[in-house]
User: Which sequence fits this backbone?
C-alpha cells in the first residue's frame, strides 16, 4: 500500500528565504506526482505535476524535482513571500487511481 | 485548464437530515471522479471512487449506505450524506480525471451538522 510522508510537518521562515519541502513515497511505481497548495478552509490549488518520466517541473518561483527510483520529491520555493504561507500537500498517483496524499507541510513566511 | 465545480460550497444542516453535494466537470468529460474527506488539520482521505454508470467503490471504513454516490453522467457525480450526524461535519472535496490521469479538484464543500 502506497504511503506518502512529508517533512517537515511545519516550517516557519523569514521573508526572502529559499526553502525546500520534502516528500517521500514507499512504492516507486507511480504515474505522476503532484504538489498542491491549500489555504485554510479552502480547496486545493495544483502547483506542479511531474510525470514519472520527468525529473523536474518549474513554475515561477517554484521548482519540483522527482527521483522516482528513490521515492523522493522536493518542492523548492525561492525568495519566499508572506503570501506563500499555506499548507503544501504532496500526492502520488498510479494512473487512473485515487491520489495518495501526504499529511502536508504548514508553511509560515514571516514578514 | 480543466475546471471542477462543487455545490454547495458550504451547508449547515440539522442532525438526522440528508445533504446532497454535487461535483461537476465543467469543460471536460470525467471518466472517474473521486470523493475525499478532510477533517481539520488533517490531510485528505479518500472515501470512494466513482465511475460513470457503475457503482462506486468505497474505501474500507466508509459506510456505503450512509454516503450515497451517484455518477449518472460523465460530468456529474453526487454525494449524499444520509441521516447526518455531527461527526459527519467535515470538508468534502471531489476530483475528476480525464484521459491524462491528472486529477482536477473541486473547491470543496464544508458541511456542518448541528
Assistant:
Amino acid at each position: 500500500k502506497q504511503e506518502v510522508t512529508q517533512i517537515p510537518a511545519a516550517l516557519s521562515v523569514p521573508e526572502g528565504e529559499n526553502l525546500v519541502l520534502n516528500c517521500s513515497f514507499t512504492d516507486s511505481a507511480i504515474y505522476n506526482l503532484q504538489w498542491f497548495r491549500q489555504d485554510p478552509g479552502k480547496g486545493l490549488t495544483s502547483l506542479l505535476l511531474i510525470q514519472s518520466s520527468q525529473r523536474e517541473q518549474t513554475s515561477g518561483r517554484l521548482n519540483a524535482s522527482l527521483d522516482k527510483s528513490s521515492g523522493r520529491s522536493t518542492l523548492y520555493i525561492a525568495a519566499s513571500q508572506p503570501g506563500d504561507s499555506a499548507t503544501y500537500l504532496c500526492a502520488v498517483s498510479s494512473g487512473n487511481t485515487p491520489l495518495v496524499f501526504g499529511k502536508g507541510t504548514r508553511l509560515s513566511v514571516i514578514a | 485548464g480543466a475546471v471542477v465545480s462543487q455545490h454547495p460550497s458550504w451547508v449547515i444542516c440539522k442532525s438526522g437530515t440528508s445533504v446532497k453535494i454535487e461535483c461537476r466537470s465543467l469543460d471536460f468529460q470525467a471518466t472517474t471522479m473521486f470523493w475525499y474527506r478532510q477533517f481539520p488539520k488533517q490531510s485528505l482521505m479518500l472515501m470512494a471512487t466513482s465511475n460513470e454508470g457503475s457503482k462506486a467503490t468505497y474505501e474500507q471504513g466508509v459506510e456505503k449506505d450512509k454516503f450515497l454516490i451517484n455518477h449518472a453522467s460523465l460530468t456529474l457525480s453526487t454525494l449524499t450524506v444520509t441521516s447526518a450526524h455531527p461527526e459527519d461535519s467535515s470538508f468534502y472535496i471531489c476530483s475528476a480525471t480525464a484521459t491524462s490521469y491528472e486529477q482536477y479538484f473541486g473547491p470543496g464543500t464544508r458541511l456542518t451538522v448541528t
